[in-house]
Specification:
about 450 residues, Aspartate Aminotransferase, domain 2, binds ligand F0G, 2 domains, Aspartate Aminotransferase, domain 1, three-stranded antiparallel beta sheet, five-stranded mixed beta sheet, single chain
């Protein structure tokens, strides 16, 4: 075997990257109130803010778009996609939504009530916000290994079953369902093992609770299972996905990830217990049940994308990409969540800025520094995203200070990753020059998207 793993695609259509200078970027970042979410995308060289909806579609997907049937009700595009989704998930009911958080909102508002509690390995920010907005307590119960960035464990996304059982015993009456997020985005893009999904499902059944999976990155999770979990090495990705879904009673999906599309999402449900109320919320918020906030052409692109997203050569290259950047960071003495996850590398900001006080938001500050140094846009997963401004004016802080570099699917080549590794090493070499930040303005929910900052 050769050492170099090639990108398993050729490029048919290109988008230019606009090169900026450090001096320009300083000005642009200050104009954006030290919040990279407020930058214009054209002012970014490597846009690794998110892997969500940012990937390149294939020629087959673009071709499928022309088959889109835009009928309001009963479009053939819906039925084509439904067949693909039923085949993968084995669930009877497919409910399209315009993206993942819409699936969450529709499901939670149909099924949860104020005072409920939902356990998960780690809730993603929109999942947590949607639950909290509905008055539901969102509880993260990832295994302790999942919170230690430098610790190597094959399935750091696993949920802590002992703590789940404790929670079921203590709060059973408040729990409408259990959730599990594959892969665990908030915890570092870490996979969940098949054994953990199976046991979690069994435990929930014992207490008569359904399992709802957040399956944004189900195919990447399946590839990790294939590589790391004994007994799965000879199974196809589709077979592994089908088994994962067998343990669940339903799922929410942001198709903007492993669905390989720029927009889309869905809910699947195994039985019809919640179906009427879910459809009602869907019609109220998203649209008629055969399009759910999407165009017919979006449904077609997704039907092709879900299958392409399970391609083993693609997934092998995909996981290797993150690992490759991880190896370069390791060589530069930079800490990151280990092993690298599926869709992203999560830099441990404390290893670059060990002396910066938490009140200056080290991960946010590192994020800004990566933009200033190399024009790289990542996202803070730390105390700006997960800390809270309490009514008494005090602040809470997150257990980890991470910067996530998330890779759009089929977009960037190896030289982009080599460049990034150089730029990040440069930030570390000049870490003393990295400036902290202070809030100027923040909102109550999802404050990272809109907050303004000043230099500390
Ligand atoms: N669940 C998980 C695990 C996610 O990662 C996301 C989105 C969602 C739900 C919501 O889906 O964006 O389609 O509404 N994650 C993106 C990210 C935004 O950057 O990780 P959505």
């Amino acid at each position: 075997m050769f050492k170099t793993m090639i990108e398993p695609f050729r490029i048919k259509s290109v988008e230019p990257i606009r090169v900026t200078t450090k001096e320009q970027r300083k000005h642009l970042l200050e104009e954006a109130h030290l919040n990279v979410f407020k930058l214009r995308a054209e002012d970014v060289l490597l846009d690794w803010l998110t892997d969500s909806g940012t990937g390149a579609m294939s020629s087959a997907q673009w071709a499928a778009i022309m088959l889109g049937d835009e009928s309001y009700a009963g479009s053939p595009s819906f039925y084509r996609l439904e067949a693909v989704i039923k085949d993968i998930t084995g669930m009877d009911h497919f409910i399209p939504t315009h993206q993942g958080r819409a699936a969450e909102k529709v499901l939670f508002s149909a099924v949860c009530k104020k005072g409920d509690l939902v356990p998960n390995n780690c809730h993603f920010d929109t999942t947590r916000a949607n639950l909290e907005y509905a008055g539901v307590e969102a509880v993260d119960l990832v295994i302790p290994e999942g919170l230690k960035p430098s610790l190597i464990h094959p399935f750091k996304g696993n949920i802590d079953l002992a703590r789940v059982e404790e929670t079921l015993k203590l709060h059973g009456a408040r729990i409408p369902f259990g959730m599990i997020t594959v892969t665990n985005n908030t915890g570092g893009g870490q996979p969940v093992s098949m054994a953990n999904i199976r046991e979690y499902s069994r435990l929930l059944k014992k207490y008569n609770k359904p399992l709802i999976m957040d399956v944004c990155r189900f195919a990447e999770n399946a590839m990790f299972i294939k590589i790391r979990e004994p007994g799965y090495e000879n199974k196809t990705i589709k077979e592994i996905c089908q088994e994962m879904f067998r343990y669940a009673d339903g799922a929410t999906m942001s198709a903007k990830k492993d669905g390989m599309v720029n927009i889309g999402g869905f809910i699947v449900l195994r039985d019809d217990q919640w179906l009427d109320s879910v459809r009602e919320m869907l019609i109220l918020n998203e649209g008629f049940p055969t399009y759910g906030g999407l165009a017919g052409r979006d449904l077609e692109a997704l039907a092709v994308g879900l299958v392409e997203g399970m391609d083993e050569d693609y997934l092998r290259y995909r996981l290797r990409t993150a690992e490759y950047l991880g190896e370069k960071l390791e060589a530069a003495g930079i800490g990151f969540v280990k092993p690298t996850g599926g869709h992203a590398v999560y830099i441990d900001a404390k290893t670059i800025l060990p002396d910066m006080p938490k009140e200056h938001y080290p991960a946010w500050s590192l994020c800004n520094a990566l933009y200033l140094e190399g024009g790289i846009r990542g996202v803070e997963i730390g105390s700006v995203m997960f800390g809270k401004h309490l009514p008494d004016g005090s602040e809470t802080y997150h257990s980890m200070e991470l910067v996530r570099l998330a890779f759009p699917r089929r977009m960037y080549t190896q030289s982009h990753f080599d460049y990034a590794a150089e730029a990040i090493a440069e930030v570390k070499a000049n870490a003393k020059l990295v400036r902290g930040v202070k809030f100027v303005k923040q909102s109550k929910y999802l404050r990272h998207f809109t907050a303004d900052f000043r230099w500390a």
